[in-house]
UniProtKB/TrEMBL annotation:
This is FNDC9 protein. Residues 204-214 have a biased composition (Polar residues). Residues 147-214 are annotated as: Disordered. It comes from Nothoprocta pentlandii. The lineage of its organism: Eukaryota, Metazoa, Chordata, Craniata, Vertebrata. Residues 150-160 have a biased composition (Low complexity). Keywords: Membrane, Transmembrane, Transmembrane helix. The chain crosses the membrane at residues 112-135.
Amino acid sequence: MGITIQNVTGSTALVIWPQMAGCADSFYSVMYHASWNSVLSSYSRQSFQKEERVPTSRSWLLVENLAPLTTYVLCVTCQSANPSREQCRTFHTLRQDAAGTGGARKELALGIWLASSALLLVIAAVLLYGCLLALCRRRRERRAAEQRGARTWGPAPHEGGAPGAPRPGAGGSDASGIPLATIIESPRGCQEPVARNAECQEPGPTTGQSSAMD
């Protein structure tokens, strides 16, 4: 008959069979039974534990809920009758943990990868935030140092009044350009007692007295 069994796992198997042109019924009967490592002695319908009906428009069936590490006998007929040997096949299921362990390992690896990625993202965000804070702090310190240096090295104010004002006793000119007299103070001056003030004064003219005597 050409029955093919593919994709066998610990609990499932895909059964494919060719279309039967002479099938008068509207369904196919798929019967299977666990033989426990032994072939069934008879192929009567009562000997099979499971029987499923498939519409004739379809020629495949996914058999589920199988026991792992078990030998099964499966038959396909186009009518509700006892199958012949040519309409049956034998297959063995795999270990259940073979697929289950692989899926669990994949899920565990995926979970570890996601957790590691999230942790790396958090660490990168913290480091970036710290770098930004350090950069801002350095910029503020640099600006403060520049401002202190500008105040320290600024122009010093002029002594003795407003800038550009002439100092007392010094020669120069006023705003109109007229030269100003230079005042020189004597360090000692005529600071003698009153009795000697006459010496500091020069004698006056004596023209009148000479005329009277004459």
